[in-house]
Amino acid sequence: MHIPVLQKEVIRYLGPKPNENFIDATFGEGGHGLKILEMIKPQGKLLGIEIDPELYEITKNRLEKENPKIFERLILVNESYLNLPRVIEKHQFRPIHGVLLDLGMSLWHIKESKRGFSFQRDEPLDMRFNPQTNRLTAFEIVNYWEKEKIEKILRDFGEEQFAKKIAENIEEARKIKPIRTTFDLIKIIQESIPSALQRKLKIHPATKTFQALRIAVNRELSNLEETLTFLPKILEKGAKIVIISFHSLEDRIVKKKFLEAKEKGLLRILTKKPVVPTEEEIIQNPSSRSAKLRAAQII
């Protein structure tokens, strides 16, 4: 099961108390959400949002087997957090005492989804969180988009130093045959980055390209920006917002949107600097190493 990142810190900044209501807008396998649900009993309710229809069904079925009564206090919906205002309205979910967004990928996506999120598995280049509502795939981007557009994605969303060379080699490779799988793409990336430099890298040479394509496919940064624009306007006074990001692009957006809302008198920032995992947590859960938590409160 997915290990929830910065769980103690999430609880500290959200401060859930008995009979309060919270939203876990990135429910996944329920790591954070179930802990919050435990702390708000006996009457407190949790609205869990999960964008991926397959993961939603898996989690829902698992929870039903473990504890059928859980759905007396857990409202679990298959939606994007971008549609939070509509979901809140539909379920008349008020008052809201806090919202959590954990922007990290679920372990399920990497190990089980078979959609090409991991560079350690040879899978189709899909990378969609919701294949039912999103037509754009990573396959379409690498095989049909202009070289310049691919380069821009890799540079803007992956901060990839060799974006130009990778984009050029993608264009050359697809003339011969389609780039269908993760391993097809990794081969191109490895041929684009000097081997001496690859040996010095602390991360897999494909990490930044995969990140960039995933962000582009799912419109992650624009969705986050839009959500952080409306969140302070739809929450009650005193409600907390906690965001966990996993790369500098997301963290920059969170920092910027919190500052904008603060200047408008909508919220106060609770974290002067982003909260990061302890060395102990990183040892126990290496995937937490890049996590940064920021928190704010509606005023």
Give the SSE map.
Blueprint: H1 7-14, E1 22-24, H2 31-39, E2 46-50, H3 53-66, E3 74-78, H4 84-90, E4 98-102, H5 107-111, H6 138-144, H7 147-158, H8 163-176, H9 182-192, H10 195-200, H11 207-218, H12 220-234, E5 240-245, H13 248-263, E6 267-269, H14 279-284, E7 292-298
Parallel strand pairs: 1-2, 1-4, 2-3, 4-5
Antiparallel strand pairs: 5-7, 6-7
Number of domains: 2
Question: CATH superfamily assignment of the largest domain?
Answer: Vaccinia Virus protein VP39
Number of helices: 14
CATH topology of the largest domain: Rossmann fold
Mean pLDDT: 96
Strand order of the largest sheet: 3-2-1-4-5-7-6
DSSP, total strands: 7
Structural class: alpha/beta
Low-confidence stretches: none
Name of the CATH class of the largest domain: Alpha Beta
Reported for the largest beta sheet, the result is: 7 strands, mixed
| Named CATH architecture of the largest domain | 3-Layer(aba) Sandwich
Beta content comes to 5-15%
Radius of gyration: 20 Å
> Roughly what percent helix?
40-55%
Cα end-to-end separation? 36 Å
Order of helices and strands: HEHEHEHEHHHHHHHHEHEHE
Coarse shape:
globular
Protein described:
It contains 14 helices and 7 strands. With 299 residues, it is of the alpha/beta class. The protein has 2 domains: 7-109 and 220-298, Vaccinia Virus protein VP39 (Rossmann fold, 3-Layer(aba) Sandwich), CATH 3.40.50.150; 113-218, DNA polymerase, domain 1 (Orthogonal Bundle), CATH 1.10.150. Strands 3-2-1-4-5-7-6 form a 7-stranded mixed beta sheet, with helices on both faces. α7 packs across α8 (163-176). The protein is globular and about 60 Å long.
